[in-house]
């Protein structure tokens, strides 16, 4: 039986000794990825088969208000990476067991027809590493394909329209394991998280497919670093913020490298960190790169592997300890006491 409980979390203002507390909602399930739909106002998470019935191998829908699982749908073998359209109630779950991607209509919570990711290479069938939905085109996705168990595992980025692959793909030996769209549907950003060159890519997308438009090394650094983008600004889990047009490093948020989300309502950047303070949410002024405060997720036992914003000052985090936490109204106590 899935368990829900409210765990006490301490909110630590980084430049003062005052300690603030608020409740974080805990859901005990082995999730792999989490995302938020601005169209439905709800969270979605891919659940491993280890969960068993009723949620194993499913995409679940979660209310960010109270952590209630409102609906679920079976999507296939071992769902892992997840991407949600910013423009329509559509999600895509990557299937680590079936080497495929399953589209889901979030309005009706029904799974569509899964599609595979191109022909086998000499490393076998390509698997979904990361998925990004094209802005303005909810039926079009970019997929960074991988060969699990190999290093490098990169098998190229491809573009799919309603499950049909465009002919031109990126087939370099190593490349953009991490991918993200900004606001331009013809531009995809990528980062090589496996090679010490730490290459940042800009891909051009046309009706024929995808090709590298620009690249540069060591603007973002670190292995296993993921990226998100807003407009033409790239935010990395390493803390780097980069102008995706000029490749200028705009600044660095001093944190420990966990999943990153943006909160436009407060102009902040939030990281799910795991460091000497334990599991915390670190909140920074997006423009000034200054730390504002942090929320300690005291009941989290593992390391954060995925996160999503879920409304103003709200963050949902998946941990590798089979736990999901939803922290709402982050910083309310501080703001209520006159912090600006």
Number of beta-strand segments: 30
Mean pLDDT: 90
Instruction: Assign a percent range to the helix content.
Output: under 10%
The fraction of residues assigned to DSSP E strands is: over 45%
Structural class per helix/strand content?
mainly beta
Number of helical elements: 1
Largest sheet: 9 strands, antiparallel
Outline: globular
- Spatially, the strands of the biggest sheet line up as 24-25-26-27-1-2-30-29-28
Radius of gyration over alpha carbons?
A: 19 Å
Terminal-residue CA separation: 42 Å
Low-confidence stretches: 1-21, 335-340
Report on this structure.
There is one protein chain. The protein has 340 residues and is mainly beta. The chain has a domain at 1-28 and 263-340. Helices cover 1% and strands 51% of the residues. It has one helix and 30 strands. The protein has one helix at 332-336; strands at 4-12, 19-27, 31-37, 42-47, 58-62, 69-74, 79-84, 90-95, 100-105, 110-111, 115-116, 127-133, 140-146, 154-161, 164-165, 178-181, 187-191, 199-206, 209-217, 227-230, 233-236, 240-243, 249-252, 260-263, 268-275, 278-285, 291-296, 304-309, 315-319, 323-327. A nine-stranded antiparallel beta sheet has the order 24-25-26-27-1-2-30-29-28, with no helix packed on it. Strand 18 (199-206) and strand 19 (209-217) form a beta hairpin. It is globular, with a radius of gyration of 19 Å. The N and C termini lie far apart (42 Å). The model is unreliable at 1-21 and 335-340 (pLDDT under 50).
